[in-house]
From TrEMBL:
Protein name, entry field: Protein phosphatase PP2A regulatory subunit B
SMART domains: WD40
Annotated signal peptide: none
The species this protein was found in: Lachancea mirantina
InterPro entries: PP2A_PR55, PP2A_PR55_CS, WD40/YVTN_repeat-like_dom_sf, WD40_repeat_dom_sf, WD40_rpt
UniProt keywords, alphabetically: Phosphoprotein, Repeat, WD repeat
GO molecular function: protein phosphatase regulator activity
Superkingdom to which the source organism belongs: Eukaryota
Any GO BP: negative regulation of G2/M transition of mitotic cell cycle
Length: 467
């Protein structure tokens, strides 16, 4: 790869670029590339899923493919609670026969969608069409009004069994249709925070605050409870599950993170309830350094395996930690994300920003990381893992920068006038006291095969690419 393989530039923006009042339903809550990177899916608070298709192989450009309503608001009559339609996560399944499949979930229900090209045919010729009437009209029926009346009568009389023809259909149009194939419901008492598809492409897990269930994609009415941290007495509850992820290659391994800052790596072959013998990744924190906010800021909001399966990245409010799967005592690297917020945690607590759940993502070659922040900024850490590429793949050239800070807003349109990537990164990092906590980059996805990223910035979808 050339030296500028991390020279990310603004490529595209979908959504309202003007400063308008953003409708709550339009805020994007999930972004996911498929395994080829040719398709991209987003979900929003209004329960809609929008799909995009790659438009150009040389540049990272996408075009709108289709949109469908995945979830609707419901009411839980037993608990007197409204269940939001908001899409929490989207995961692509393996495509079959030109059809694409994806899982989407809100707080309670997971759905499997089939997206396919549908041919629309219309009847182009039948027994009452003009051509068939003319051919069946006997000679000498005349012209004018009187002839027409006689002709119609004659036509009716000659529509005998022998003159009847099958209607003919002709191609009219092609549309992209989405149909719900299966609905996996009634298995979670608490809010579903993550779903993850197994590498065997036959099963998937869904995690809520206290339980993780294992499903077979073909069986929507039955799941197995593989993790249960619910205490006998709910007053003794000290932690909740925040995220879960299947190992990308070994179908028996999965991990989940907790609000206590721990990650547990579990093997489904060892126990029916996998949390009993799970390997725990936890960094020791000296109690002297504890403060009122420590418990909140150490809660892990997202956890991901690297595509080669060797590393784990976890995101809490202030840091990203990278763990080696074989070393559970301490992380191999800790990246400080919000140094400038350490003195302002009381502000973030008052406006609830401290509870924001930022995601973390690996590049396709397992060597680099990205995560989000405030003021519509997101950070890319090039080659943060030495030797992270899978065997046989070409390593990217070392980047001269250890952090690239980009902004997913209107300034991105004129980024070419804003100087070099280093200058842009330095400027974007200097927040001062002016922090817009409403403009947070929580959801994004890294293209699996190249240095292109899709970013959700409130109701807009930005694409940045180093192609």
């Amino acid at each position: 790869m050339p030296q500028d393989s991390f020279d990310f530039k603004f490529s595209q923006c979908f959504g309202d670029k003007a400063d308008i009042v953003v409708t709550e339903a339009d805020i994007i809550t999930a972004v996911e590339f498929d395994h080829t990177g040719d398709f991209l899916a987003t979900g929003d608070r209004g329960g809609r899923v929008v799909l995009f298709e790659r438009n150009n192989s040389k540049h990272c450009e996408y075009k709108f493919l289709t949109e469908f309503q995945s979830h609707d608001a419901e009411f839980d009559y037993l608990k007197s609670l409204e269940i939001e339609e908001k899409i929490n996560q989207i995961k692509w399944c393996r495509p079959t026969n030109q059809s694409h499949f994806l899982l989407s979930t809100n707080d309670k229900t997971i759905k499997l969608w089939k997206v396919y090209e549908k041919n629309i045919k219309l009847v182009s010729e039948n027994n009452l069409s003009e051509g068939s009437l003319a051919s069946s009209r006997p000679a000498g029926t005349g012209s004018g009004a009187q002839g027409a009346r006689r002709g119609n009568g004659a036509a009716k009389s000659v529509l005998s069994l022998s003159s009847l023809k099958l209607p003919r259909m002709s191609q009219h149009d092609k549309i992209i249709a989405a149909a719900p194939k299966r609905i996996y419901g009634n298995a979670h008492t608490y809010h579903i925070n993550s779903i993850s598809i197994n590498s065997d492409q036959e099963t998937f897990i869904s995690a809520d605050d206290l339980r993780i269930n294992l499903w077979n994609l073909e069986i929507p009415d039955q799941s197995f409870n593989i993790v249960d941290i619910k205490p006998a007495n709910m007053e003794e509850l000290t932690e909740v599950i925040t995220s879960a992820d299947f190992h990308p290659q070994q179908c028996n391994l999965f991990m989940y993170s907790s609000s206590k800052g721990t990650i547990k790596l579990a093997d489904m072959r060892q126990n029916a309830l996998c949390d009993l013998r799970a390997k725990t990744f936890e960094e020791y924190l000296d109690p002297v350094n504890h403060n009122f906010f420590t418990e909140i800021t150490s809660s892990i909001s997202d956890v991901k395996f690297s595509p080669d399966g060797r590393y784990i990245a976890s995101r809490d409010y202030l840091t990203v930690k990278i763990w080696d799967v074989n070393m559970d005592t301490k992380p191999v690297k800790t990246i400080n994300i919000h140094d400038q917020l350490k003195e302002r945690l009381s502000d973030t607590y008052e406006n609830d920003a401290i509870f924001d759940k930022f995601e973390v993502n690996f590049s396709g070659d397992s060597s680099s990381l990205m995560t989000g922040s405030y003021n519509n900024t997101f950070m890319i850490y090039p080659n943060v893992i030495s030797g992270g590429a899978s065997p046989g793949s070409r390593r990217p050239e070392p980047s001269t920068m250890d952090e690239i800070v980009l902004q997913a807003d209107k300034t991105a349109f004129k980024s070419k006038r804003l100087g070099t990537l280093e200058q842009q990164s330095a400027r974007n990092k200097e927040w001062g006291d002016d922090i817009d906590f409403k403009k947070s980059i929580l959801h994004f996805s890294w293209h699996p095969r190249e240095n292109s990223v899709a970013i959700a910035a409130t109701n807009n979808l930005f694409i940045f690419s180093a192609l």
